[in-house]
Amino acid sequence: MSIVELAPLIKVWYKPLPKFPKIPWPIIDIKLAYKNKTLPQPVFSLVDSGANFSILHIEIAEALGLDLKKLGGPKPGGTSVSGFYKFWELPEPLDINIYGFSFNFKFTVIDNPGLIWPCILGENTIFEVARLDFRKFKGFFEILFRQDIN
Amino acid sequence: MKQTNLAMILKNYTSGWVSISKDYKKVIASGRTLKSLLQKLEKMGKPGGYLMKAAKDYSGYVGV
Predict the structure, then answer these.
(1) How far is A115 from chain B (nearest CA, A)?
(2) pTM, whole model, 2 decimals?
């Protein structure tokens, strides 16, 4: 088994949110771009090891200039623990920058304007390019990006 | 990274989109839609900050 070199760790504090502030969330800020369009500010994104794929809010996708109508109607995605959902799979990856590390990630857009997260990073993105050590009991988590691909 | 209490900053925002200041101390602009928020930020001279969705309750989310 080969050893993967990792960049120095980045420590990120869990962030409390309204209503249940005692339940903090693993949230990072990411810069998003698609072709010649960049969002003017980084976006808070949930890091979710329970998500099989990574999700963009429909309004974020539109702000990046993605024309979802051109992709046809959303496909039925089946049933998740959140209920039945439909989605668009973006044909091209987006440019993403996480604390200075740049990647091209594929995203899915869920047909749900009520989604409460601008972006969710699941197993197919950040977990492929970094080691994440969650230390909720200490109130933080650590991100160590792989050196061999970044 | 700095510790951030989004519970305090977002407590008065229950829907739409917000832009949180770079120092994580306040909401600098908000909008019912992301498009309207981005238009406001443009008029404000593109200040630095972070984009976030405002919600009454974030606890209902479970992984997809």
Answers:
(1) 9
(2) 0.91
- The two beta strands, A43-47 and A119-121, are parallel
Give one word for B15, left, alpha or beta, with left for phi > 0 and alpha for psi -120 to 50: beta
Candidate CATH numbers 3.40.50.1820, 2.40.30.170, 3.30.1360.120, 2.40.70.10; the one for domain A10-145: 2.40.70.10
Angle B17-A50-B7 from CA coordinates, rounded to 5°: 35
Q: Report the residue of A55, A87, A116, A143 to disrupt the B interface, i.e. the one with the largest count of B CBs within 10 Å.
A: A116
Query: Is residue A142 helix, strand or coil?
Result: strand
Tokens of A138: 């200490």
Question: In the prediction, which pLDDT does B41 show?
Answer: 98
> Which of B5, B53, B59 lies closest to A19 in CB terms?
B59
Beta bridge partners of A132: A143
Domain locations in chain A as residue ranges: 10-145
User: Which whole number is the average pLDDT over B5-18?
Assistant: 92
**What number is the ipTM of this complex?**
0.91
